[in-house]
Each structure stands twice: as structure tokens, then as C-alpha cells.
Design brief:
By secondary structure, this protein is α/β, with parallel strands linked by helices. It is built from 15 helices and 15 strands. Bound molecules: flavin-adenine dinucleotide and NADP nicotinamide-adenine-dinucleotide phosphate.
Length: about 375
């Protein structure tokens, strides 16, 4: 056994970015990227199914705009924790605090400092969460400060109402047994615009990974014991991975290939357009050709006049899905939690009802038994 690494969430390793390549083609609505980060020298080990934690830095352009609006030079010394660690304001806003979404405390301070913001007071009540969420949709801290230009903060007051910048998790898209001291990620870059402002908006970590890391990325391994591959390499795999949800399944296939095992494996992948969004197409096609992947089914949602999603393919292929479940298949789902995972779960129940001749209650019991046997595993976000 290699010695345990000294790197962790509390002590992240500075990984080196090697490859940073766009996976989606010209004309796609998505910017999804393949990243390769070297872990050489860290001693970090991960298993397929794990995620990588990434500590991002904020956009320096946004930091400068905030400093200007607040009248700060950026050199003001700011306290970072109760232990007395401090650093200059510019660095604090870049690496230590969330400067995008406003905290409740920041809004509370704005209400206290400017009577014209009094209308915000009722939505700051924890019972009014939906109203607060509605107000915050598409509004960042700079927007709020610009809406209330009379509001002034001292440096200490300002950092006192900011939240700590949190790391983000990304499903690991590689097997260490196949690629060694490196880790691969599949990242959908969050970019959007808001109606009330010409300033382009971006997700903190996905844009950091895409364009601002300067090749150095603070990382840690986040273990996902609930999302391991089955112990028996012959266990059939059914993998539902639309969009970036495909990432851990690329790792599963690398792992099976590295181990030289070839149990039945079926990937059901979905994205918008086959032409531009078929992530890792060549790799999956060669895995099919060499037998690592037994079956590949795709659902391109926008290549016809009606939506086709992974759960529609599951229902079309219901007889085979049920047959594999009866053979003991493990059913995996990764990707969007809000809509996809719920709809896939409903489709799984329908497949069991239609092709297993079960009542809805019996299908519930069947799915519960799969969960109990760890044959229904999800990693959704
Ligand atoms: C276990 C796990 C695994 C994950 N694996 C992956 C993965 O493999 N690949 C991957 O890409 N992501 C993955 N994620 C998601 C990832 O962790 C981040 O949440 C994602 O990259 C966004 O982070 P960000 O910092 O770029 O965006 P943030 O700065 O966190 O911003 C996101 C926020 O922007 C706002 N927003 C976004 N779009 C709009 C819009 N159109 N209008 C208004 N507001 C908007 C929303 O408030 C949204 O919550 C995973 C998450 C988890 C928990
Ligand atoms: N909660 C949300 O509203 C929302 C929306 C988008 C993305 N996201 C998040 O954005 C991140 C990246 O997303 P991504 O680029 O990996 O892929 P994604 O947005 O999940 O899209 C991948 C594919 O899934 C389809 N899809 C949409 N709704 C679906 C449903 N209910 N069931 C099955 N498939 C569905 C999409 O089709 P269409 O695009 O044609 O509908 C697309 O073809 C994830 O973190 C995801 O959770 C969240």
C-alpha cells in the first residue's frame, strides 16, 4: 500500500493543468471541457466514482470593479479567521471570499445603511426564502451595490458580511490504474447573461478551470463510497450519464479495460446535438469496438422536433433493461439532480412495471431491494 497522502481538503495539493480542451464543437450551446491535472508528487490516490474538490479563485476583473465601487485600494489588511490570519483586501476578495452571490448578512447591512432598500427587509426573513431566491436570481454583489449607490462599507464591515469561498466538486473522469498520477475532469462551463446588465456572468469555478488557473489548481480527493463499481467485475453495468454525468462512466470503462475484465456494460448518454455535443464519441466508439463497452445508446434531445431524453431510451429498451436487472445488473445514474435523476427514477419504475409485470407497489419494492443491495447508485448534482 502506498503511504497516505498528506494532502486533503484542509491542505489542498497544487495540481498542474496539462490538457484543457473543448469537447463540444463549433455551434454548440454548451462549452464542455476535458481537463487533465497532474497529481505527480502528491501521493494522492482516488478510486473510480470519487470526485475531485477544486478551490477556485474569483475573476480578477470582478475584484477590481468591486474595489472601485467600494472605494478600497485593495491594500487594506483583512482578517480571514478567528486565529488572526490576514491578507490584503485584493487577495482576500480573489481567493478567500464569495464575491458573486450576496449573503443574507450583506443584504441586511444594505437595508440598515440605506432606507431606500427597506423593501428588502421582509424577504430576509428565513420564512421568505423563495422571495429572496427570486430577488437574487441573476443579481450578484456588484449589482446590489450599484442599485444602492449611497451604501458605504468599511473594509472590515464588508468582509464581515461575505461568505467564505467554497471548493466545488467534479466527478473524476479517469481511472488511476489506467493513467497514473493524473486526474481527468469533464467540466460544463457556466456562462450566462442577465437582462438588466451588459456585464457577462460566469460560474466561479468552471470559468476558473476553463481560463484563469494559470496552470495551478488547488485540489483534494473527495471519496464517494456510495458510487463505487461493483466488486464482481462480471456484474452487468447500466450507466445513465447525460451531459457531464458521463464523466464517472468514462472512468468505469477505463478501470474495466485496465483490469482486463469485460462484464456486460451499457452506457446511455444524452446531450443536445449529436454533431456538436457527443462527448468522448471516439473513445466510446473504440471501447465498443474492443469490447470494454457492450452497448452504447444515445438520446440527442434537440436533433428532432420533440425532446428525446435518456429516460425515453430506457423505456424503448425496457425489455433489455429489465433482463439485465434480473441478471443482477448495477444501475448507475450521474448528472443533473433537479430534473433528470427524478425522471430516470420514474422511468426505471415504469420499466419494472411494464417488462417485469409488477404493480406500482411491487415496482417500488423491487427498486428498494436494488438500493438495499447497492445495485442502484446515484451521484447527482
Ligand atoms: C458530486 C458532484 C459532482 C459534480 N461533477 C461535475 C462534473 O463532473 N462536471 C461539472 O461540470 N460539474 C460537476 N458538478 C457541479 C460543480 O460542482 C459546480 O457546481 C459547477 O461547475 C458550477 O460551479 P461554478 O463555480 O462554475 O458556478 P457558481 O459560481 O457556483 O454559479 C452557479 C450559479 O450560477 C447561477 N446561474 C447559472 N446559470 C444561470 C443563469 N442562466 N441565469 C442566472 N443565474 C445562473 C445559479 O445561481 C447557479 O447556482 C458536480 C457537483 C457535485 C456536487
Ligand atoms: N437545474 C437546472 O435547471 C439545470 C439546467 C441545466 C443544467 N443544470 C446543471 O448544469 C450542469 C451541467 O449540465 P450538463 O451540461 O452536464 O448537462 P444537462 O444540462 O444536464 O444536459 C444534458 C442533456 O440532458 C437533457 N435533459 C434536460 N432535462 C432532462 C430531463 N428531465 N431528463 C433527462 N435529460 C434531460 C438535456 O436536454 P435539453 O437541454 O435539450 O433540455 C441534454 O440533452 C449540471 O450541474 C446540471 O445539474 C441544471
Amino acid at each position: 500500500m502506498p503511504p497516505e497522502s498528506s494532502y486533503s481538503r484542509k491542505n489542498p495539493f497544487l495540481g498542474t493543468l496539462g490538457v484543457n480542451r473543448r469537447l463540444t464543437g463549433e455551434g454548440s450551446n454548451k462549452e464542455t471541457r476535458h481537463l487533465e491535472i497532474s497529481l505527480a508528487g502528491s501521493g494522492l490516490r482516488y478510486e473510480v466514482g470519487d470526485s475531485l474538490g477544486v478551490f477556485p479563485s474569483n475573476d480578477p476583473g470582478l475584484v477590481e470593479m468591486l474595489l472601485k465601487r467600494l472605494g478600497f485600494s485593495g491594500d487594506e489588511e483583512c482578517s480571514l479567521d478567528a486565529e488572526g490570519t490576514s491578507c490584503p483586501m485584493r487577495g482576500a476578495l480573489t481567493r478567500h471570499f464569495t464575491i458573486t452571490s450576496p449573503s443574507r448578512q450583506l443584504l441586511q447591512a444594505v437595508v440598515e445603511k440605506d432606507s431606500s432598500a427597506a423593501f428588502l427587509a421582509p424577504i430576509l426573513d428565513p420564512a421568505s426564502m423563495p422571495h429572496l431566491e427570486k430577488f437574487l436570481r441573476g443579481r450578484d454583489i456588484l449589482d446590489v451595490l450599484e442599485e444602492f449607490p449611497a451604501v458605504k462599507f468599511s473594509p472590515e464591515e464588508f468582509t464581515g458580511v461575505l461568505r467564505k469561498l467554497q471548493p466545488r466538486l467534479y466527478s473524476i473522469a479517469s481511472s488511476q490504474n489506467a493513467i497514473g498520477d493524473s486526474v481527468h475532469l469533464t467540466v460544463a462551463v457556466v456562462r450566462y447573461s442577465v437582462g438588466h446588465s451588459p456585464r457577462p456572468r460566469g460560474g466561479v469555478c468552471s470559468t476558473f478551470l476553463a481560463e484563469r488557473s494559470n496552470g495551478e489548481i488547488p485540489v483534494f480527493v473527495h471519496s464517494a463510497k456510495h458510487f463505487r463499481m461493483p466488486e464482481n467485475p462480471e456484474t452487468p453495468l447500466i450507466m445513465i450519464g447525460p451531459g457531464t454525468g458521463v464523466a464517472p462512466f468514462r472512468a468505469f470503462l477505463q478501470e474495466r479495460k485496465a483490469a482486463g475484465t469485460a462484464g456486460f456494460s451499457w452506457l446511455i448518454f444524452g446531450e443536445q446535438h449529436a454533431e456538436t455535443d457527443f462527448l468522448y464519441r471516439e473513445e466510446f466508439e473504440s471501447a465498443l469496438a474492443d469490447g470494454t463497452l457492450t452497448k452504447l445508446t444515445t438520446a440527442f434531445s434537440r436533433d428532432q422536433d420533440h425532446k428525446v431524453y435518456v429516460q425515453h431510451r430506457m423505456e424503448e429498451e425496457g425489455a433489455e433493461i429489465f433482463a439485465q436487472l434480473e441478471r443482477g445488473a448495477c444501475f448507475y445514474v450521474c448528472g443533473d439532480a433537479a430534473r433528470m435523476a427524478r425522471d430516470v427514477d420514474a422511468a426505471l419504475h415504469r420499466v419494472i412495471e411494464v417488462h417485469g409485470g409488477r404493480t406500482p407497489e411491487q415496482a417500488n419494492e423491487y427498486v428498494d431491494a436494488m438500493k438495499k443491495d447497492k445495485r442502484y447508485r446515484k451521484d447527482v448534482y
